[in-house]
Amino acid sequence: MNLLIILALIASTQTWTAKSPAKYVNPLIGTEKMGHTYPGATVPFGMVQLSPDTDTISYSVNGLYNKEVYKYCAGYQYPDSTIVGFSHTHFSGTGHSDLGDILIMPTTGVLRLNPGTADKHKEGFRSLFRHDNEIAEAGYYSVFLDDYRIKAELTATSRVGIHKYTFPESDSAHIILDLVHGIYNYPGKNIWTFLRVEDRTTITGYRQTNGWGRTRTQFFAIKFSKPFKNYGHKSFSDNTIYKGFWRRFNQESNFPEMAAPQLRAYFDFETEEDEEILIRVALSPVSTRNALLNLQQEAPHKDFNLYRRRAFEEWDRELGKIEVESLREDDLTNFYTSMYHAFIGTTEYMDVNGEYRGIDQNIHKAEKFINYTTLSLWDTYRALHPLYNIIQQKRNSDIINSMLAHYDQSVHKMLPVWSHHANENWCMIGYHSVSLLADAMVKNIKGFDYEKALEAAVSTANNKYYDGIDEYIKRGYLPEDVSGNSVSKTLEYAYDDWAIAMMAEKIGNVRIFHEFIIRSRNYKNLFDKETGFMRPKLSNGSFKKEFDPLDTHGQGFIEGNAWNYSLYVPHDPNGLIKLMGGKRKFSDYLDTLFSMHLPDKHFENTEDITREGIIGSYVHGNEPSHHVAYLYNHTDELWKGQKHIRNILETKYKPHTDGLSGNDDCGQMSAWYIFSAMGFYPVAPGSTVYYLGSPLIVSATLNLENGNKFRIETKNQSVNNVYVKRVILNGTELDFPNITHYDIMQGGLLVFEMSSKPN
User: Fold this and answer.
1) Are 137 and 25 a contacting pair, CB within 8 Å?
2) How many CB atoms lie within 10 A of CB 105?
3) Burial letters for 19-31: b for 16+ Cβ neighbours within 10 Å, e otherwise?
4) Is the pLDDT of residue 591 over 80?
5) What is the DSSP letter of 84?
6) Residue 647 near residue 694, CB atoms below 8 Å
7) Each residue's pLDDT tens digit, 329-375
8) Are 532 and 458 within 8 A, CB to CB?
9) Which of 29-38, 253-262, 488-497, 622-631 has the lowest mean pLDDT?
10) What's the pLDDT score for residue 610?
């Protein structure tokens, strides 16, 4: 046999095993184009997300929104050539932004307290860097700052960011602490900044901002491994008229209290060649005292390598909850990077003593649960939290308890919509927190009060002044002339109402079940038989006349169009199919969606939709379509869905810096990949059913919290064998394309037999 043929056969059958899952994480995936994520140092679900920021462009220019700022949602852009410093809080793949707190930058030479600009970097404290000198791993980041010949290394615990800077010999080494810096900055965002020099190695302080979270306060404590010899600060844009009697002091140099709306401080050192300075930065939502407590309990010593090793081990433990074999190493990189992304969006938000700042801005103490923040629920209810209900059950229970605490503290008596850092920012539509509660309840997740959850869900769904709810309840739909994006809102409210009905059914509340199961059918009120689409209605009951089902603007939809959103009835696909004329017509609709062309003009002004996330007119780069390929399971042509799922897995996720086809949205895009690569997906959270698709992996073992193992195996797996010939669960062949949550949780074996031909 020809040697090339032998080598080809060997390559075609080789599988890769994730013996150390953290090894396959690539924190640089998704750092380009749309500001997907940040490549820094964090631990799973950590409060600290320590990362390089590559620019500080303003949110607005001449009073108008600056479209370029969208690229910097996570603070880091791979194509950039300069770094302005390393800040401690970031969002992962959001379509809007905030944070970027407590930026630190080491420098040498002339002290500069302005970051400068990328094209004139030597006029500021930023530095050139090269990707050849950049390392990004799970729990660790390193880069060489060319302008200062300083090696920067970062790692973290949950509440403490740990920096190690290796300096050249210098009698003018500086550590700059920038409290002006932030992500999505604009004049007036900083309300107040404050610093105290406790001693020559310890400083404390806080920053208050008015941004996406409009009343946000971040406390911190910083410990240097070496005493600084001098220090000082400069305030920027301080237009305060009243200066008080502080004016008697020279506050800018070696004065131990610093306060201003915009403040940058510096700390001077003398260094020898290759001298290391370690900096530990602890965060707290409550006080500087608690920040010092967090520092003492989580990072009491100066052994950087020990913290780095512990962070890696923590990642390996969490990522090891799913052990995967694949045909290609790139697939392992995609899979475990997706898990990495899924575990950095939602973050702890409390101190080691259990204290945290609540939505009412008062200090609370979490009793028997860990308080979490960064809940991008319009995105993450779809797959991220269902994933947690399989492999992070205790954590998801804590997240739900955090949401119920939010409800208790809310003056609106509502569950969170999109909350972060003791703030509700009201971003996006629906009340999808109820989906999380329903999904956990029907799947018997323990650790929270089911009756209280239903109470909170009903209160949220009946808040009549929230986003057109009053009109929705009265009419059974939301009129477009009353509230924009009315079709999307009506469809999502209807799904959420179904989720509440499932909660009520779970605990036997017949009255609430009937009320909300009826509301869940409201999607039917916007279906236009003439066009075959969901279509906006006006308050007079007529359909809006000007209607383009391809356009994403002014048509009653948000981040989508009628072609995609008309399929958003995850809770009643059979009812939708009946509206659309039966299985044959429904299948034809799906075929057209995946094959037609969507011209750029229909989405060019929508930041969240870009060409690389589109197949035909199907928009994978945005969440409302994530269940669509699985709807083929309700037709007589399941194989078409299998083909599209594998195509999405292969083309919309790449192990590159621009490897994501849309914002990761706090882990939702990644959760879709994790589920789909394993061969199943939660089309309707709030149900115990998972739809089967076309697995990409060779095998996967889910190590469950109850001690059981659920194993997935594929036979005849290859790049070309994208179709499922048959599925066997625990020795019994399935005659329907789904499994249940109970099948998974009791452990067992699910086998897919793959084929190159449709079944």
Assistant:
1) yes
2) 30
3) eebbbbbbbbbbb
4) yes
5) -
6) no
7) 999 999 999 999 999 999 999 999 999 999 999 999 999 999 999 99
8) no
9) 29-38
10) 79
User: How does strand 322-326 pair with strand 699-703?
Assistant: antiparallel
Nearest Cα neighbor of 314 from 286, 348, 282, 288 is 348
Q: Which of 53-57, 112-116, 444-448, 696-700 has the lowest mean pLDDT?
A: 53-57
| 691 burial level (CB within 10 Å; 0-12, 13-18, 19+) | buried
Q: C-alpha angle with apex 49: 47 to 55, nearest 5 degrees?
A: 140
Q: What Å distances lie between residue 97 and 182, 211, 399, 606, CA to CA?
A: 10, 9, 21, 16
Cα end-to-end distance, the chain, whole Å: 33
Residue 557 DSSP symbol:
-
- Check pLDDT > 70 for residue 503: yes
Q: Do 68 and 107 meet the contact criterion of CB atoms below 8 Å apart?
A: no
Contact 331, 659 (CB under 8 A): no
Helices (H), 357-449: 377-380, 384-391, 393-409, 433-442
Mean pLDDT in residue range 492-498: 98
| Other C-beta atoms lying within 10 Å of the C-beta of residue 358 | 18
- Outline where DSSP puts E strands in 201-348: 202-209, 216-224, 230-235, 257-260, 263-271, 275-284, 322-326, 347-348
How many residues in total does the chain contain? Answer: 759
**CA atoms 545, 550, 552, 558: torsion sign:** positive
Complete domains list, the chain, with CATH: 25-317 (2.70.98.10), 343-461 (1.20.1050.60), 464-547 (1.20.1610.10)
Q: Give the span between the Cα atoms of 408 and 405, in whole angstroms.
A: 5
Pick from 137, 267, 144: which is nearest to 201 by CA? 267
CB 283 within 8 Å of CB 111: no
Q: Can you tell me the mean pLDDT for 728-756?
A: 98
Res 106 pLDDT > 90: yes
Q: pTM of this prediction?
A: 0.97
Q: What percent of the chain has pLDDT over 90?
A: 89
| Rounded distance between C-alpha atoms, residue 97 and residue 92, angstroms | 9
- Per the structure block, which two tokens stand in for 203? 């400083």
As given in the structure block, the two tokens for residue 226 are: 């070496």
Residue 9 in this model has a pLDDT that exceeds 50: no
Mean pLDDT of the chain: 95
> Is residue 132 a contact partner of residue 203, using CB atoms and an 8 Å limit?
no
The pLDDT value recorded for residue 609 is 77
Structure tokens at 62: 């001449």
Which residue bears the tokens 């949550």? 741
Pairwise CA distance, residues 154 & 386, whole Å: 32
Angle at 42 between CA 40 and CA 46, to 5 degrees: 140
Question: Kindly report the CA angle at 582 between 577 and 585, in degrees rounded to 5?
Answer: 95
Q: Is the pLDDT of residue 27 over 50?
A: yes
Mean pLDDT of all residues in 54-65: 89
Taking the alpha carbons of 396, 402, 404, 406 in that order, is the dihedral positive or negative? negative
Helix (H) / strand (E) containing 158: none
Secondary element (H or E) of residue 732: strand 732-733
